[in-house]
Amino acid sequence: MSNKRLIESVTPPSWRTPVELLPISTPHCRIERDGHVVIVTMDRPEARNALSQDMLVGLAEAWQYISDEPEVRVGILTGAEGTFCAGADLKAMGTPSEDERVRHRAAEIPDYHWKGLLRDPEALPAKPIVCAVEGYAVAGGTELLVGTDLRVAGESATLGLFEARRALFPMGGSAVRLPRQIPYAFAMDVLLTGRAITAAEALAMGMVNRVVPDGQALAAARELAGQVAACGPLAVQAILRAYRETLGMPEAEAFKVSDAIGWPVIGSEDAKEGSRAFRDKRPPVYRGR
C-alpha cells in the first residue's frame, strides 16, 4: 500500500492534497498526517464503524502520536463512508485482531481500550481533537464525541447514549462528562431516556459546535482544525491543560494553577512572534517555543 492517500468524496477540490498514511494505522483505523493536522478515521464501514480491538488500538496509538509529535498541532476524528461510529461490537471487541502487530500493541499498551475511547485522564491528547460526524454516532460513538474538544455534525447525523434503554451503563465516561459540558437537564435527557438525538438538537444543547450539510462534516472540521493550527501551539496546549487541571477546584486555587501554566506561554518566543506579526501586519510564524 502506498504511503500517500487522498481525502476524497467529502472534501472540496481545494482540500484534496496528498496526505501521509502513518504506519501506526490498523485494519480498522486509518491515521493520516497532513502537515500540522492528523486525521484519524474509524474504518470499519461494513459494521458501521463499530469498535473493535483493531480500532481501539489504532485510536490509542493515534492519540499518543498526536501528543508526542512536536509538529502536530491538532487532530481530527471521523468515520469512514458516511458513518461515525455505532458503538461497541461486543463480539469483535472480545476477539483478538488477526493482525500480529495489533495483538502485540494491545498487550503492550495498558488499558488501550480506555485510552482509545479518550477516557484515560492520564493519556488524553495534549492537543485539541476536532470531531467530524456523519450518520450514526451512537452509544460509544457519542462517548467518543464527548471526549473531543470541537465538534461538527452533518445535518442528518444521529447521536445518542442508548445504554440505559438496554439496561447498560455508558462506560466511556459520558455519565460524568456530559453534565459538566452541557446544562444538567439536557444531559439527563440524553442519558436517562436513551433516545436518539438529532444534529439540530445536539447543536441546541451545546453538544456540537456546528451543523453542516450532509457530506461536509470533514471539510468543516478541517477548516476548524486549520484555524486551531494557525494559533500559537503553546498557547492552545496550555489552555487545554488549564481547563483539565482545574476541574472542580475553587476559583482562587484554579487561578494559581492557571497562572503557573500561563506565564511561561506569555514569555515564550511564540508570544514575541505574535506581537511582531501584529505590528508588521503579517501572518505569524509559530514554532512552538
Automatic annotation (TrEMBL):
Superkingdom field? Bacteria
Q: Which InterPro entries match?
A: ClpP/crotonase-like_dom_sf, Enoyl-CoA_hydra/iso, Enoyl-CoA_hydra_C
> What does the entry give for GO biological process?
fatty acid beta-oxidation
Keywords carried by this UniProt record = Lipid metabolism, Lyase
Q: Where is this region: Disordered?
A: 270-289
One GO MF term, please?
A: lyase activity
State where composition is biased (Basic and acidic residues). Answer: 270-283
Annotated CDD domains: crotonase-like
What NCBIfam families does the entry give? Answer: PRK07799.1
Family the entry assigns? Belongs to the enoyl-CoA hydratase/isomerase family.
Q: What is this protein called?
A: Crotonase/enoyl-CoA hydratase family protein
Species per Swiss-Prot/TrEMBL record? Microbispora catharanthi
